Amino acid sequence: MKKSLIVAVALTLGVASFGVAQASGGSCCQNGPCTQQAAQLSGAGVDELTQEVKAKELELRRIYTDDTIDPHQVGKVEGELKELKGQLRGVAQKQGVPPCCLS
């Protein structure tokens, strides 16, 4: 029980700190902060992909808050999340948006 709580808190803090870094102007880019236009992807399927990523992140958070954590379910959802984020990076690359500017 305590171990799953620690893992859930660590995951939440990690996701939150990454969001803060992105919201602070995208300071991860080597060429300076991301412009608002560069950070916004557009085109077919981008909104759907973004919504799917958010849904998978919420699902993963829910799994980590359960009393018993199923490692197979965690692995499955993390794999799906990784695949969706890879698709978003591909769209960003096609549009010339640096990967560090993705929010």
Describe this entry's structure for a reader.
The chain has a domain at 49-98. The protein has four helices and no strands. The chain has helices at residues 2-23, 36-39, 46-65, 71-94. The longest helix is centred in the last third of the chain and has 24 residues, at 71-94. The N and C termini lie far apart (32 Å). Residues 1-23 form the signal peptide. Keywords: Signal.
Short description:
The chain is mainly α and 103 residues long. It has a domain of 50 residues. The protein is built from four helices and no strands.
- Helix/sheet category: mainly alpha
Alpha-carbon distance between the two ends: 32 Å
- Cα shape: elongated
Radius of gyration from the alpha-carbon trace, in angstroms: 15 Å
Report the biggest beta sheet as strand number plus sense, adding barrel if it closes. none
- In sequence order, what are the helices and strands, one letter per element? HHHH
Strand residues, percent: under 5%
Q: Give the % helix.
A: 55-70%
Write down how many β-strands occur, each being a DSSP E stretch of 2 or more residues: 0
The helix count comes to 4
Low-confidence runs (pLDDT<50, min 5 residues)? Answer: 20-26
Arithmetic mean pLDDT: 75
